Amino acid sequence: MFEQSRKNRVAWIPAFLALTGLTYSTLQALGKAESFCITTGCELFKDITIQGYSLWWFGSAFFAFTLLLCLAGRRPIALAVATLALFIDILLLVFMAFTAPCFACLVAALLIALIFYSLYRDTGARNRRSSLLLTVWLFAFCPNIFGTLNESLGVWAIAGPEKADMQVFFSPSCPVCLATIERFAVNPDARIAFIPVAESEADIESIARISNSMQEGTSFYIAFKRTTRPAENPVSTSVPLALRWDLFRNKARLGALGATRIPVLVTSGVPRSLLDASPSFDGGIPPIQNSTPSMPQSPAFQPTMPNIEQFAGCGGEAAPPCPQ
């Protein structure tokens, strides 16, 4: 009898974790925990539903059921439910690892794993399959953590707002980048972020000089023009380790974009200069008109960007000059 009452005692630690998960999932389902949505994957996964119900409601159901089992002392049943939840969680983590990490989802995944581990230890189970399942979960969880950290770090913009309409990746030694900066940086009110990318040690020193000039109050455009101007007696500039780290992150993000040459322009939306307004069009985005009448208008070819015939850029190392 004593053994039976001991077996059915309340599992307080898993119950507390389940209560935390229930509160968290319910707040997410109601849209009251937006502060946890710090990655792009949050926007992607919050719209996924099953029969019209958000995945967060299914998470709330799991945590609520587990909470009741833990309070009733039904450890074996609670462990079986947690095992099933952990297996489903592994599938979701693998899916996120190949798409986009969701930080809010990772918090719920960690609570599920902690509930499973606490029940596994509390029941005194020595099942190799359970240990293997937890190991597989850990391998699926870690890439999402690294992806979240990488996205949270973002890129370092030497000039421009944090939330810009356009991001310009440039290198000081690229002639096409010079023309691009002269085109976009003259307007200080434009919401454009300029993100430097170093392809050589000379680029790193040039970016350091631009940064130093801007700290002294010089505008980015003037600092860039002065630095890229040929100097008779070039002076070596010390480069802080933090700047090298920022430039490494920028180059890593550029590589993640799949870009093979610079400059790279990343825009949010379409610039209105690329759209020709039609007097007969009323409201919304004006239709795009063709600016080259000689271009064939067959269904297999429809121009989408007028006045752009070709793209110029610098590829490979910055040492060889690229065509202007």
Short description:
The protein has 324 residues and is mainly α.
DSSP helical segment count: 11
The CATH topology annotation of the largest domain reads as: de novo design (two linked rop proteins)
Give the second-level CATH assignment, the architecture of the largest domain.
Up-down Bundle
The first-level CATH class of the largest domain is given as Mainly Alpha
- Radius of gyration, rounded? 28 Å
User: How would you characterize the largest beta sheet?
Assistant: 3 strands, mixed
Strand order of the largest sheet: 4-3-6
Listing every helix as H and every strand as E from the N terminus to the C terminus, the arrangement reads HHHEEHHHHEHEHHHEEE
Percent in strands: 5-15%
End-to-end separation: 89 Å
| Proportion of residues in helical segments | 40-55%
Which stretches are low in confidence, meaning pLDDT under 50 for 5 or more residues running? 277-283, 288-309, 317-321
Number of strands: 7
The gross shape turns out to be: elongated
What average pLDDT do the residues reach?
79
